[in-house]
Amino acid sequence: MISSANKVTVETAEGTVEISCTDIIVASGSEPAPIPGFDFSDKVWSSTEGLAPKTLPKKILVIGGGVIGMELGMFYAQVGTEVTVVEFMDQLLPGTDPELVKVVQRKAKKAGIKIHLKSAAKSYTIKGDGVEVLVDVNGKEQTFDADVILLTVGRRPVTDNIGLENVGVKTDKRGFISVDAQCQTKTPHVYAVGDITTGPMLAHKGSAQGVVAAGAICRQPGIAYDCKVVPSVIFTDPEIAWTGLTEAECKEQGLDYKVGRFNFAANGRAMSIHATEGLVKVITDAKEDTILGVHMVGPNVTDLISEGSLAIETGLTAEDITLTIHPHPTLSEVFMEACEDVHSMSPHVMAKK
User: Is the separation of the CB atoms in 225 and 199 below 8 Å?
Assistant: First the structure.
């Protein structure tokens, strides 16, 4: 609990301890968000219970086909659980490039996962040792039986009841804290990092902000959280990763852009490890050739995406990537050949007419 701008109260096994300080970094993180009628319990799991089940359910109904829902849903399907996913939006993984989603959705269906889009869970009742869930599926009510419900509709910042009001730090209506480039709140010497700040709720964003806040406290000259991009990764099967702008965002901003693509099916390393599903998609400025966005779905793309982020951060062009020799045979060649395809120069892609 934050008691004042220079004092924090901590409850320990030995009792209450007061810690005096000159600076405070608030990093209280986030927690799973519930929805009306689905309070967390032994029958309604959050991602926390989903990651450490005491027993393996035979049937599970996942409410929310976003990142966490699909990561855990695909895992449970792989270990033999019958999985049903209910998603309110018209596609899985909302906000992700539809080209990437199609690859994962196809693989999910092959794994036996039942997917219901434009659907909303309304209520549930206990039925024997399991549950019966009432779902509005495209305007028609259906019931689904399951052992447990996995509720993964998102997360919310943990900013209530930690003493922010004692130091004059205010949150927005969703509970997030605004910070400046040094991750300092509007209250001097009080900093905030991670999921409680506006922007993507990603661990690597929080880590980067933590370094900035520590540097600011130590008066390191020029320290600032000033990134062009924060990469996103999804540990589905196959994996998804992206950084920078999507095609939809380019269109919204009225940008003139070009796109290059290359499939893992034409990559020697992918063939050797029997992981040929997916592609890499590169979006560039049509005039300057600078890379605006990189989108990947396929084997190990959560590792490969860093090259795309580096390219955007440093203002590299697609040509810069193609002129960089990539080792063979490796998965990294797919990014290089997608950049070559921006100019119809990949030797392993049929020429565009």
Answer: no
